[in-house]
Write a structure and sequence with these properties.
Blueprint lengths: L6 H26 L10 H55 L6 H24 L1 E2 L2 E2 L6 E5 L7 E5 L5 H4 L7 E2 L1 E10 L11 E16 L2 E8 L5 E5 L4 E4 L6 E2 L2 E2 L11 E5 L6 E8 L4 E11 L6 E2 L1 E6 L11 E4 L5 E5 L4 E4 L6 E4 L12 E5 L9 H54 L3 H27 L4 H5 L1
Helix pairs in contact: 1-6, 2-3, 2-5
């Protein structure tokens, strides 16, 4: 028997310490709810669960991102709903004006209503925002991050829903005609002309029907500031003065000419001028006359140019191969190019014609300027114009419908995305929980066992400590 080292006591003490540590871990797990409270509890499990936590939090944020995307779409779609209502109201007004039971004054009132509604559509397109970002002016193109990892995006792009793009613009929008200055030659004997002395502007009009004047089948005419006819033309190149004896021309009454100019060529253009204006500067004192003309040229189908003045530039600019001229806007941005100065093609889309001037007699050169005019808007001032407006409005309604349909499809997609993300997050959370969280029932069993072992270990340590006292009997 030995008293220096109580092996039984040491053994009981070691076991008691082990039980106490196990009891302490059980208490920590039961109080925190986690099986892993530090890396030492399960090093591999900790690394795996932290990676899962990143995915779970990413998925949860992706759900919120998708919900924000739905809110953005609903904002845009709600604004377009009102644009749709406005377009339907405009179409109803155009339909009303297309009926010949209304006077010019009635149609003027309808036109005012149309113009205000058009302006409101543009205002909606300009001012509709989500978190300070414009949605309906064509500038919004973004990505919704709808996943937990890099690159898991969904593209959202909303078209330009302003009145200009819908083809119903008011005067501030895209134009439909281009005004080009044309060189003009005129009679040198001003005293023979039945045209007022000084500088005067005349409109070039196309007659409703071909009218024979003398030996000429007139298709075009010049009208003065009062709207009275002063000259006629078959081809738009050579305009002949009218006389008092010629009383009718197409759809109007002739102005009485003050001269004897029947058959006198008033103006001979280098190229046909069939629309626009002519400025004639007559000086009777010197028997001199000069003239310039402007011709309105329709933009090509599908082409768009904002109203304003454009400059023709030459090879000093960076032009597309095969072109000699460029067309730049007031800000210096290239909008079109040309090889011959006659046909101009969109700079952004080389396959899209902008406009065609005509023949080489009027080909534009570097340094020339053109003016883009016309409002391209909805005109209901006559039965014919109102009837044509119905087609324009149908196209605008179709564009808005297409955009709303696209937004609705995106919203449905995002709603399905949210459901998918929530399911993925739920399942991944369950997996992470099995690694990281404590099973309270099992841990309570472990805690109870360790409690009992602690009590037993303490009792046995007391008994082991009493064992050396038996040596005293030997010393008795």
């Amino acid at each position: 028997m030995r008293i220096q080292n109580n092996i039984e006591s040491l053994n009981a003490y070691r076991n008691l310490n082990t039980t106490n540590r196990a009891l302490s871990r059980s208490l920590e797990r039961l109080s925190s709810g986690y099986r892993i409270n530090r890396a030492a509890d399960d090093a591999a499990g900790l690394a795996i669960s932290e990676k899962m936590r990143s995915q779970i939090r990413g998925l949860n944020q992706a759900v919120r991102n998708a919900q924000d995307g739905i809110s953005l779409i609903q904002t845009a779609e709600g604004a377009l709903n009102e644009s749709h209502s406005i377009l339907q109201a405009m179409r109803e007004l155009a339909n009303q004006s297309a009926n010949d039971t209304y006077t010019a004054e009635d149609r003027a009132a309808i036109q005012q209503d149309i113009d205000q509604l058009t302006t409101e559509i543009t205002r909606i397109g300009v001012t509709t925002e989500f978190n300070s970002e414009n949605l309906l002016d064509g500038s919004y193109s973004g990505k919704m991050h709808i996943g937990a990892n890099e690159g898991q995006n969904m593209d959202i792009s909303i078209g330009d829903m302003r009145a200009e793009t819908l083809g119903i613009a008011s005067a501030e929008g895209f134009a439909h005609e281009i005004t080009v200055e044309v060189d003009a030659n005129a009679s040198t004997d001003a005293s023979d002309l039945a045209i007022a002395d000084g500088e005067n502007t005349y409109d070039v009009v196309q007659l409703d029907s071909v009218t024979t004047v003398g030996t000429i089948d007139a298709n075009y005419a010049l009208t003065d500031a009062s709207g009275e006819y002063v000259a006629y033309s078959a081809d738009g190149e050579s305009y002949t003065l009218l006389t008092a004896a010629q009383e009718n021309l197409g759809d109007g009454t002739l102005a009485e000419a003050s001269g004897t100019g029947d058959g006198i060529d008033a103006i001979a253009f280098g190229n046909a001028v069939t629309s626009g204006q002519v400025v004639i500067d007559t000086d009777f004192a010197s028997n001199a006359i000069s003239a310039t003309a402007t011709a309105n040229i329709q933009l090509a189908d599908g082409a768009e140019l904002s109203s304003g003045t454009y400059s023709v530039v030459g090879s000093e600019h960076n032009l597309i191969e095969g072109t000699n001229l460029g067309l730049v806007d007031g800000s210096g941005n290239m909008v079109g190019t040309s090889a011959d100065g006659e046909t101009f093609v969109s700079f952004e889309d080389s396959g899209q014609d902008l406009f065609v001037i005509g023949t080489s007699a009027n080909a534009l050169e570097a340094g020339d300027e053109i003016t883009v005019t016309g409002d391209g808007g909805i005109d209901v001032s006559s039965r014919t114009a109102a009837n044509d407006a119905l087609t324009v409005l149908d196209n605008a309604i179709e564009q808005v419908s297409s955009q709303r349909s696209m937004l609705g499809a995106l919203q449905n997609r995002l709603e399905h995305t949210i459901t998918n993300l929530e399911v993925a997050s739920e399942n991944l959370t369950a997996a992470e929980s099995r690694i990281r969280d404590v099973d309270m029932a099992a841990e309570m069993m472990e805690f109870t066992k360790n409690q009992i072992l602690t009590q037993a270990g303490t009792a046995m340590l007391a008994q082991a400590n009493m064992a050396p006292q038996a040596v005293l009997q030997l010393l008795g």
